[in-house]
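Here is the promised in-class demo. Please do not try to memorize the tokens; focus on the logic of going from shape to residues.
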């Protein structure tokens, strides 16, 4: 049986997967409300304007590790007879999926420039809730390639 990495990260799938994930990020940012949402939207718009393609580049750079972190969830889903969709299985454990994905960015922050790490560490306490809210959409994206 093919792993999640072998299925998702083919040369034919990767570009579309990165674009779909970038669209998901756009959608998730667009849903944010309140003052913190306004700040997130402003920062996101600035990054996209100043450095076009940055979001896609970050997604592509982290994708292999993120998919690797999802292998355990994928294995449990396949071992369980692939009941429902993989995305639905991820949504059931959105908190666990979010933690696995954040392990990747946490690891990168530890190796980052101290100024960037400080910014990341200030944002990290709220990151899980944002990632949890994105898990259903991420599941739909991944299901498209399975």
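The designed amino acids, position by position:
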């Amino acid at each position: 049986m093919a792993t999640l990495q072998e299925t998702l990260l083919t040369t034919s799938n990767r570009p579309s997967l990165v674009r779909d994930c970038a669209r998901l990020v756009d959608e998730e940012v667009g849903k944010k409300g309140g003052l913190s949402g306004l700040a997130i939207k402003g920062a996101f718009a600035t990054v996209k304007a100043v450095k076009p393609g940055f979001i896609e580049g970050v997604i592509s750079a982290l994708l292999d590790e993120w998919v690797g972190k999802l292998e355990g969830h994928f294995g449990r889903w396949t071992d369980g007879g692939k009941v429902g969709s993989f995305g639905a299985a991820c949504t059931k454990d959105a908190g666990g999926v979010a933690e696995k994905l954040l392990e990747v960015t946490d690891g990168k922050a530890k190796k980052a420039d101290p100024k960037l790490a400080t910014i990341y560490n200030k944002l990290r306490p709220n990151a899980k809730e944002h990632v949890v809210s994105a898990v259903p959409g991420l599941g739909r994206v991944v299901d498209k390639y399975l």
